[in-house]
Design goal:
152 residues; mainly alpha; two-stranded antiparallel ribbon
C-alpha cells in the first residue's frame, strides 16, 4: 500500500475478488449480490432453495477468471459501463434478471444446463489452480491405464 484516500462516488461499484469474499476491518462480506431479495441467500425455484447466489456467481465468474489467468492482458483491457461494472458481469446480471422473471419450469430448464456447464468450468479451474489435486488426478489416470493394460 503506497497511499490511502477516501473517495466518495455515486453509482454501483463491484469489487470482485477471486474468491468472491471481501474482508474490510475484519468484517467478511460477499462481493456478489442476492438477486431474488428476501432473507435467503439461495436461489429459489418453485419454493425450493437450490444453491447459494454466492456459488452461482462464483461458477459464472470461472470462465472470466480462467481467461484472466491465461492472458491477464484480457482483464487489463476489460471495459466497464458508466456505473463502474465490468461488461462481463453486466452480461451475466442481465441474463440472471431475465431468468428470475420466468416461471419455475423455465428457470429450472435454463438453469440446469447452464449451471452444469459453469460447474464443469469451475472444476477445471479448481484442478488447474491446485497442484496437489492435479497430481492426484494424473496419478489416478496413470494407475488406471496401467491396470487396464495389465488386465488386457
Amino acid at each position: 500500500v503506497t497511499d490511502i484516500n477516501i473517495v466518495k462516488r455515486q453509482g454501483a461499484f463491484a469489487p470482485f475478488t477471486t474468491s468472491g469474499v471481501l474482508s474490510v476491518n475484519g468484517m467478511l462480506a460477499s462481493s456478489y449480490v442476492n438477486m431474488q431479495g428476501g432473507e435467503s441467500d439461495k436461489i429459489i425455484i418453485g419454493g425450493v432453495e437450490i444453491f447459494s447466489m454466492q456459488s452461482l456467481a462464483q461458477m459464472f465468474e470461472a470462465p472470466h477468471r480462467l481467461a484472466c489467468a491465461v492472458n491477464f492482458g484480457l482483464c487489463e483491457r476489460e471495459s466497464y459501463n458508466k456505473d463502474g461494472v465490468s461488461t462481463w458481469v453486466v452480461a451475466g446480471h442481465t441474463g440472471a434478471n431475465w431468468l428470475l422473471k420466468q416461471n419455475s419450469f423455465v428457470m429450472a430448464a435454463v438453469l440446469a444446463p447452464v449451471a452444469t456447464v459453469f460447474f464443469a468450468i469451475s472444476a477445471i479451474e479448481y484442478i488447474l489452480q491446485n497442484v496437489v489435486v492435479s497430481m492426484m488426478i494424473m496419478a489416478s489416470v496413470y494407475f488406471a491405464s496401467r491396470k487396464m493394460k495389465t488386465a488386457a
